[in-house]
Amino acid sequence: MAFVVLCTGGITFANAAPASNAASHTASKGDKVEFKSSLPVTQEEIAAVDVLGEICPKLIGNNKKFDAGYERLLKDLMPNIDQPVLALKALADDAEYQGKLKEAREDANRASVQDNREVCQDILNYPANSKKTKK
């Protein structure tokens, strides 16, 4: 599962193909924008990061540096989405994504607290100048 990859291999999505221009939308909770099919990564990868956004504040505390790293990571995962955090929230209404999210939560529960904390630290230190976030 994607979360296990995150735990064991670090957070690397360098091989992701670019998203199509159809994905460059600002998604909000009320939008019915269909952007899933144009994402450069799998829903499993996005769900794994979504779960980390849920559990990391509990493991490392609320932290603005984590929030910034989390947003940079989401932007790398969804490079043509104007507001990836809102796009992630828009996926919450999608039944298929909910299944992936449930699996990611189960994976996180199976991982040790230390493994989860290490991945949270990776996000906390996610580079501001990663190749994908450079303009």
UniProtKB/TrEMBL annotation:
Residues 1-16 form the signal peptide. It comes from the Bacteria. InterPro entries: DUF7944 (IPR057704). The keyword Signal applies. Keywords: Signal. Residues 42-123 form the DUF7944 domain. Pfam families: DUF7944. The keyword Signal applies. This is DUF7944 domain-containing protein.
